[in-house]
Each structure stands twice: as C-alpha cells, then as structure tokens.
Amino acid sequence: MKENLIVTGGLGFIGSNLIKLLLKKKFSIINIDNVSYSSNFFNLKDLPKKNYKFIKCDINNKKKLVNIFKVYKPLAIFNLAAETHVDRSIDSPKSFIESNIVGVFNLLEAFREHYKKYKKIKLIHISTDEVFGDIIKGRSNEDYPYKPSSPYAASKASSNHLVSSYVRTFKIPAIITNCSNNYGPCQHPEKLIPKLIYNILNNIPLPIYGDGKNSREWIFVEDHCDALFQVFKKGKIGEFYNIGSNKNYNNLEITKKLINISSQHIKPGNHVKIKYVKDRPGHDKRYALNSDKINKKLLWKSSTGINKGLKKTFLWYLNNQKYFKSIKKIHITKRLGTI
Predict the structure, then answer these.
(1) pTM for this one?
(2) Catalytic residue at 58?
C-alpha cells in the first residue's frame, strides 16, 4: 500500500526541496499549493510523474482540504504554506494574517475533522526563529519567550500558538519546528542570498541594509529538509524543535563570501560592489537558535558548511538562469518594506 504524505506550499523554496527528499525516501507526495507569486513550477520541473500529484488549493479552503485528506489518507502533513517575506509583511500585513493565521486555523479545523475518523496521521507545522525576536547574546531554546518584531514574525508566532493550543485542547497529533535562515537552490530572489546572486550575474550593485552587521544563523535547505524528515520519523507529538546550524554570519560576511565564490567561476562586472541602503524598519540585529534538543533527542545535526552551501547555491543559479525568467522582474528588483 502506498504511503502518502502531503506537503502544503510545495511549489515554494523549502517545500519543493522537501518534496524531492521525500520522493527519494519512496513516499507518494501530494503537493497542495495556492500558486501565489512565490510559487514556482520551475522548482519541480524535473520530477517524475510517478508518486507525485499536484493539487491547486489554498489552505483557507477547509472543505477542499477535508476532501483531499479523506481521499489520500496521508500519514503526515508538512505545513509550509505561508507568506514569508518580512519586507512584504511591512507593506501589506493583511495577506500574512490571512495566510499564516487564518489559513493555519482552517488547516487545523480540517485536520481535526479528519482525525476524528482517521487516527494514523500527524501534522508537522514549520515555523521560524523570527518568533523569538532579537537575540543579542546567547541562543534561544524552545522555551524562550516569543517577542516578534515584524508582522511576518507575529503571524508565525500566532500560528505556532494556534497549533499548540489544538494539541492541548483537541488532542490532535502535531509537532512544531522553528528553523533558522534557509538558503539554497530554488529560493525566490526577494531573499538576500538569491538576490545577491542575481545581481552578481547581472552586474548590478549589491544592496545591503543599514550597516550590514545584522547577524543570521544560516542553514542549507537540504539540511533543514533532512531535519524535518527526522521530526516526522522520530519527533514527539506536542513538542517544539529548533532547527539550526549553530553558525552565525552577518550580511556583510555573506556578501563577501558570495563575491569571492562567484569570482572563481565568472568575472563579475564593475558594478558588482556593496551598496549600503536604508535599513528595514524594526530590523532585528541577531537571530540565534539553540538546537541542542533535536541534536540530542533525534540525533540530527546540520552537515553543510557555509562555504560549501554557498558554492552549491551559486552554481545552481549560475546553471539555472532560466529560473529568474520564470519570475516577474518586478518581484526581483523592487525594494519593499521601506514605509
């Protein structure tokens, strides 16, 4: 009998990488995506048709979700359907509330209805380190208080609370993960690393917010997906798991690494220089997770160093420049979140 898994938001960056991993693990995958601006069929263009099905559906459509769950009876649902870009949440918070809070509520209601009849299922809700806000010193563990700074982070914090409340009140089997900054193939170029790569490949200055000292914990997307698989296989219902690399780099360090990596493969144009721009409103200085729990309990650790990961990422974009053509140029070049 086929073992079905559902991935919501599977046309996005992390979702598409997760689907590739799960197919390699011999599961049958149902990809639910609403095909928003950040969804991209290019991400899964080479997938074999076998054991994979795409269904266009918004997670706010509870009735359709209930039917999909009933038809496919998945062992698990990985919820990656979300609005994710902080700058966009500053310009237009409403879509983040609708997707990341109301959408998760509707997903939970559909899941709860399905779970009454079909007990062999679990929900893995994927979230972010941004829920903890600025971590100037040390690292935030799973019990650290939430203090989100942006509408995006607040919407994800809200979704975590909703999922956790459904576990406690309605006894649904769910697990929540908070991950650090992802990078890798198939990431939309509104985000820092693919935007820098796009600009390097197109001889455009490299925009750095503020003084460039904002620090992030970077994790290669394939490492994150491997962690999610371990959570699915061995994670404890009702628990939170932080997923990080334990390695922090500021935006200037990342930019200089990318310039160095790119110069080993192409000759960057004379406009490829760091250009400091107005900072993002409410920009957190540092995120940093303590991932001891998943390291010890599930025996998972990230394995891709930053230099290796950035090289793999740069080479993917260099060899897949058609990817950029699959995205509206305005979504690549327009600066958002300046108020």
Answers:
(1) 0.97
(2) no
